[in-house]
Design brief:
The chain is of the alpha+beta class. The chain has 2 domains: about 110 residues, Alpha-Beta Barrel (N-terminal domain of MutM-like DNA repair proteins); about 120 residues, Helicase, Ruva Protein, domain 3 (Orthogonal Bundle). About 25% of the residues lie in helices and about 20% in strands. The protein has a 4-stranded antiparallel β-sheet, with no helix packed on it. A hairpin with a 4-residue loop joins strand 9 and strand 10. The chain is elongated. The mean pLDDT is about 95.
Length: about 260
Amino acid sequence: MEGPGVRTIADRLLPLAGKRVTAVEGRSRFPLARIRGEPVERIYPVGKLLFLRFPACTLRVHFLMWGRYRLDGEIPGKVPKLTLSFDDGSVLRIYASAIALLGNDEAEQKYDPTLDPMEPAWDRERAIRLLQAKGREEIGDGVMDQEILPGVGNIIRNEALFAARVHPASPSGCIPAGVLSRLLEEVRDFSFTWYRYDSDGKRIQPALQIYRKKTCPECGGRVESGRTASLDRISFWCPACQEKHRCPAGTGRRPPR
């Protein structure tokens, strides 16, 4: 699940803020019983992670690829990874996800919201510097680095690279700063487009330009695809419209400009 979907879930769970946990059921190596009797102080996303903050600790949920949740409902035939009951009668069930319990200070220090391109305080200039520091590593990997752009998954990656006209195999450190800035703006824009679709209960497919397409919507040429870079995730690109930036001979990166 990519960042926009997690943000939508956080929005839909906001009514639980201020509610007290009355029962906890689940399978985890963490002492989840610690949150029994505790009120939810805050519910918020950072990238692909959902956080429920309590007075003494923070619950972190990673929905992975196929994680789901239900508030006051169940998924037939599925066993929840975690079930939280609340003092107003609400029941939150989380399925097929990774659950962790963190100290509040640890959660705030380790998961910096200014890295999240969907946050108002997002530091785009820092993201540019971090991508440039990757040298010859392919930008297709760089934009999915959760320590640089938390929340970006394969669909956002492909759509943003196409919108910015950047080939996924371009070396991160050899892309001009202005092009990286545009790419990051496209990451942000598509993330919010997906968030709006998701919030309205709509599928994102009508907004996709390149992901799983066969024909380029810009030039009408054939879209190529393949597993690029070390992440081994499938990429889609137009060889005519997306420039493959290259490093000058004997260097690993180009001076920012």
